[in-house]
Design a protein that fits this description.
Helix content of chain B: 40-55%
Pfam families (chain B): Aminotran_1_2 (PF00155)
Oligomer: heterodimer
CATH architecture of the largest domain in chain B: 3-Layer(aba) Sandwich
Strand order of the largest sheet of chain A: 2-8-7-6-5-3-4
CATH superfamily of the largest domain in chain B: Type I PLP-dependent aspartate aminotransferase-like (Major domain)
Number of strands of chain B: 14
Number of strands of chain A: 14
Structural class of chain A: alpha/beta
InterPro entries (chain B): ALAT1/2-like, Aminotransferase_I/II_large, PyrdxlP-dep_Trfase, PyrdxlP-dep_Trfase_major, PyrdxlP-dep_Trfase_small
Strand content of chain B: 5-15%
Order of helices and strands of chain B: HEHHHEHEHEHEHEHHEEHHHEEEHHEEEH
Distance between the termini of chain B: 66 Å
Number of helices of chain A: 17
CATH class of the largest domain in chain B: Alpha Beta
Cofactor (chain B): pyridoxal 5'-phosphate
Catalytic activity (chain B): L-alanine + 2-oxoglutarate = pyruvate + L-glutamate
Family (chain B): Belongs to the class-I pyridoxal-phosphate-dependent aminotransferase family. Alanine aminotransferase subfamily.
CATH architecture of the largest domain in chain A: 3-Layer(aba) Sandwich
Number of domains of chain A: 2
């Protein structure tokens, strides 16, 4: 019927059909449950995506009050909203043309909000200056990342542009790279040492990559998704030095920067470390850092608010970057406002502070308790182990499948961890993602588990997993 | 490494020479240099610099709220309720608003607009959109599965263009776009490396579309690329023409005959003002032409929350509907949209309200209909006013503004002005618009940003400022034009 079969090759080469299978089955099962066709469990437990609210966590009150007042300014006349909420909403509305969040804004974001973000960055980095001119707000960090890729990747060249990416890496980023026509150069994180990044591995990957493509960028996810690791200061320095030596543009995805747990863990931004490394490096290494309102304790994934900060970008390129950022009119205004609230939350003394701080802290506590529980449960199970969670929203436990299980998967022509996840879903209603979607060392298998969920949900999930896993290991022993 | 261990200075990784060369061709006139100068002047005014005017009037961009248009109360109430559900207990909100909010929240993960949605968009919203389309098109069925919610219509348009751009050299995808056009198209085509194929709208005939012109442009394009797509903006931007039903049928026949994928940008579908003009959706006409066409022609239609009577540009809400798309291609489309996770949920929610607005009998209906009517009738009045006043200026000729939000008048420029502009390396209408900005504070977009026939000059001006301000602006423009003409004669 249609001549349209010959569509864009780049789009055609999209992959990861597994995504559809698992999610589709989960949706089908939900329908089956609603129609009363299932008795072994009464709902699907979805720990597949990094979505705080979907997992049952309530949004931050202050955030939602300000947003509501911005949507419907008549609320500013109301007594029900705290003073600091009203003040913030008024200030933000005055930054919008016509006093309405329905107006277009500057394509890189509202000036006042960019200023607020730059001040947040400066505070976070202990005084390292940040200019709003180097900040571009977009509808999610992913969008900003894709624009940077668009700048970097020369898809028409006979020699593909290469980007180094960690293994494991979250699936939609890999998709984005393929869509842009980039060559993916994988570098493995060291699972045994808590998913640390070893420069030797970067070096090895780069050497291999240079044989078949032109590597220009190094993508880092810190804190890591799905691994939950966080880089030490020393590790970051080593990576920056490597990028300087090998002439690579650093893309630092730091969206989990406020989800850090444990007394001995600290987040160091790539920008801060870079700034403290001597003028030759600090003034030359090109860096793009990404952050978003989707993670952290705000978890406002659906509002689509994110930004990129560019460091040491060639001034001539900046002009083009600006143009690319401005063809899509502007980022969603509500997402921009959420960014402002993330960058400048209630402070001690503000009327909303007590509630705000309690809500934020309880999410952190909850995640810590969850990971404690995970380790407890796993320690009693054969064939499953997990590196300690330092940051982020996920754990990436390793499954040690017996040979019989591997054979069974081979016969079904599916990755063992995918098959494991399908059966886990089918038999217990627990939906988690298989390691094969993220990349892993050959013959290793994992699942990714979302941990930022209410304690009773986590407990339910762990029980379902335990039951299934015991049965699974027994059957294939 | 040098002796003291310092690394040798190196050049940048990302330079103008090493970056993606397609980026160099990207230009977006609506927010280009004239707007940057306008922003600068605003700053200067704030700092107390004396100018021959007191404010900059930004009549360059189709932003209704920026020009003082009020949002629709009902929509904002529902959005507030969705955002802060505590308000559901507040008796200041009408019951119908609360019901809409509850329904939307139920379809969101964790009952929160902060959760990711499916990348194609919230299910119940897509169903509501399908129902709206069906009602609008006199009962012709619409499948929710063919509906994709998008981040504004722009996102949908670029996504489809991305899907359709393929081939190399002589087989590279060619995309037919009207001249004048909304520069999102030219910018996106440049970015994607697709071939832009221009077809000229007929200024003498009120910017209408001639099939013979489509034919000519297609024939010429076949020499150097593979034309596959035909883009139509109806009602038109910047021209404001509303295509007649006959014209739409002719275009459909043409696209079918020439095996072209039709992209129908219909974001101004409620903005129709002129007597005798009516919005006909491409889909409706297609299906009324019978299965010979409706079972074969591939069509994508686009809509948005930014225009019409809503003017909610900042929400980034929109949708696209695909008709007769090859299932394999559609599967690829679905994957393509999954890369950007999901469209902003407030935009999705707003789209739901637009397609499912208050009905007679509901508590909010009276206010809603009053507000909607006020906005649309004001626009109609301003469309007429603009055409009338501009046509009293010798050297300015303005076609009727049949729909959308802009006038695109033709201006006659004196030879000397044209030469001075060219000497400066500026397009003559840019030269004119810059002078206009400096002397009156009025910010317009030169026609060269949209495309126009060689040797003709235009500007695009929105009809959005409040009526009295619009009158003042038009009269200032009139004065300026006469002065300019005299100055350069």
């Amino acid at each position: 019927m249609s001549f349209m079969k010959d569509i864009s090759l780049l789009v055609k080469n999209n992959f990861l059909s597994g995504i559809d299978v698992l999610s589709r089955r989960a949706a089908q099962i939900t329908v089956e449950i609603q129609q009363g066709e299932r008795t072994n469990y009464n709902k699907v437990l979805d720990l597949s995506s990094g979505d705080l609210h979907r997992g049952g966590i309530k949004p931050i009150t202050f955030v939602r009050q300000v947003l509501a007042a911005c949507f419907y300014p008549a609320l500013l006349e109301d007594d029900s909203l705290p003073l600091d909420v009203k003040q913030r909403a008024k200030i933000l509305l005055s930054e919008c043309d016509g006093g309405s969040i329905g107006s277009y804004t500057d394509s890189s974001g509202i000036a006042k909000i960019k200023l607020c973000v730059s001040q947040y960055i400066t505070r976070r980095d202990g005084g390292v200056p940040s200019s709003p001119d180097n900040i571009f707000i977009k509808s999610g960090s992913q969008t900003a990342l894709m624009i940077m890729l668009k700048l970097l990747i020369r898809s028409k060249d006979s020699c593909q542009t290469g980007v180094l990416i960690p293994v494991p890496t979250y699936a939609s980023f890999t998709l984005a790279l393929e869509e842009q026509g980039a060559a993916i150069i994988p570098y493995h994180l060291c699972e045994e040492q808590g998913w640390t990044l070893h420069v030797e591995e970067l070096r090895k990957a780069l050497l291999t990559g240079r044989k078949t493509c032109n590597p220009v960028a190094l993508y880092i996810c810190n804190p890591g998704n799905p691994t939950g690791h966080i880089q030490s200061r020393k590790s970051i320095e080593e990576v920056i030095r490597f990028a300087a030596e090998e002439r690579l543009f650093i893309l630092a995805d730091e969206v989990y920067q406020s989800c850090v747990y444990g007394d001995d863990t600290e987040f160091y931004s790539y920008k801060k470390v870079l700034s403290e490394m001597g003028s030759t490096i600090s003034s030359t290494v090109e860096l793009a850092s990404f952050n978003s309102v989707s993670k952290g304790f705000m978890g406002e994934c659906g509002l689509r608010g994110g930004y990129v900060e560019l460091v040491n970008l060639d001034p001539a390129v900046r002009e083009y970057a600006q143009r690319l950022f401005s063809t899509r009119s502007c980022p969603p205004v509500i997402g921009q406002i959420a960014l402002d609230l993330m960058a400048d939350p209630p402070k001690p003394g503000d009327p909303s502070f007590p509630t705000f701080s309690e809500e934020a802290q309880s999410i952190k506590n909850m995640i810590c308790k969850n990971t404690g529980r995970i380790q407890e449960v796993f320690s009693e199970l054969p064939g499953i182990s997990c590196q300690p969670l330092k940051a982020g929203f996920f754990v990436f436990p390793c499954l040690h499948f017996p040979p019989k299980a591997i054979k069974w998967a081979k016969k079904r022509q599916m990755e063992p961890d995918m098959l494991y996840c399908l059966h886990l879903l089918e038999e217990t209603g627990l939906h988690v993602r298989p390691g094969c979607e993220y990349g892993q060392r050959k013959d290793s298998h994992h699942i990714r588990l979302f941990v930022a969920t209410q304690q009773d949900i986590m407990e339910d999930a762990l029980q379902r997993l335990k039951t299934f896993h015991m049965r699974f290991m027994k059957e294939f022993s | 490494m040098s002796e003291n261990g310092a690394l040798p200075l190196r050049g940048k990784v990302l330079t103008v020479d090493t970056m993606n060369p397609n980026v160099k061709k990207v230009d977006y006139a609506v927010r280009g240099p004239i707007v940057q100068r306008a922003v600068q002047i605003e700053k200067e005014l704030k700092e107390g610099v004396k100018k021959p005017f007191e404010e900059v009037i930004k009549a360059n961009i189709g932003d209704a709220h920026a020009m003082g248009q009020r949002p629709i109360t009902f929509f904002r109430q529902v959005m507030a309720l969705c955002t802060y559900p505590q308000l559901l207990d507040d008796n200041k909100f009408p019951e119908d608003a609360k019901n809409r909010a509850r329904r939307i929240l139920q379809s969101c993960g964790g009952n929160s607009i902060g959760a990711y949605t499916s990348s194609q968009g919230i299910d119940c919203v897509r169903h509501d959109v399908a129902n709206y389309i069906q009602r609008r098109d006199g009962g012709i069925p619409s499948d929710p599965d063919n509906i994709y919610l998008t981040t504004g219509a722009s996102d949908g348009i670029v996504t489809i263009l991305k899907l359709l751009t393929a081939g190399e050299g002589r087989t590279r995808t060619g995309v037919m776009i009207s001249i004048p056009q909304y520069p999102l198209y030219s910018a996106s085509l440049a970015e994607l490396g697709a071939v832009q194929i221009n077809y000229y709208l007929n200024e003498e005939k009120c910017w209408s579309l001639d099939i013979s012109e489509l034919q000519r442009s297609l024939q010429a394009a076949r020499e150097h690329c593979n034309p596959r797509v035909l883009c139509i903006i109806n009602p038109g931007n910047p021209t404001g023409q509303v295509q007649s039903r006959q014209c739409i049928e002719d275009v459909i026949r043409f696209a079918a005959k020439e095996n072209l994928f039709l992209m129908a940008d219909e974001v101004y579908q409620d903005n129709v003002y002129a007597e005798g003009c009516e919005f006909h959706s491409f889909k409706k006409v297609l299906f009324e032409m019978g299965p010979e066409y409706s079972s074969k022609l591939e069509l994508a239609s686009f809509h948005s929350t930014s225009k019409c009577y809503m003017g909610e540009c900042g929400f980034r809400g929109g949708y696209l509907e695909v008709i007769n798309m090859d299932p394999e291609v559609k599967a690829q489309l679905t994957k393509l949209v999954s890369v950007r996770l999901c469209p902003p949920v407030p935009g999705q929610a707003l789209m739901d309200l637009v397609v499912n607005s208050p009905q007679p009998g509901e508590p909010s209906y009276q206010t809603f209909i009053k507000e909607r009517t006020a906005v649309l009738s004001a626009l109609a009045e301003k469309a007429k006013l603009t055409e009338e006043i501009l046509n009293t200026v010798p050297g300015i000729s303005c076609n009727p503004v049949q729909g959308a939000m802009y006038s695109f008048p033709r201006i006659t420029l004196p030879e000397r002005a044209i030469n001075e502009a060219k000497a400066k390396g500026q397009a003559p209408d840019m030269f004119y618009c810059m002078k206009l900005l400096e002397e009156t504070g009025i910010c317009l977009v030169p026609g060269s940003g949209f495309g126009q026939r060689e040797g003709t000059y235009h500007f695009r001006m929105t009809i959005l400022p409040p009526t009295d301000k619009l009158k003042i602006m038009l009269n200032k423009l009139k004065e300026f034009h006469q002065k300019f003409t005299q100055q350069y004669s």
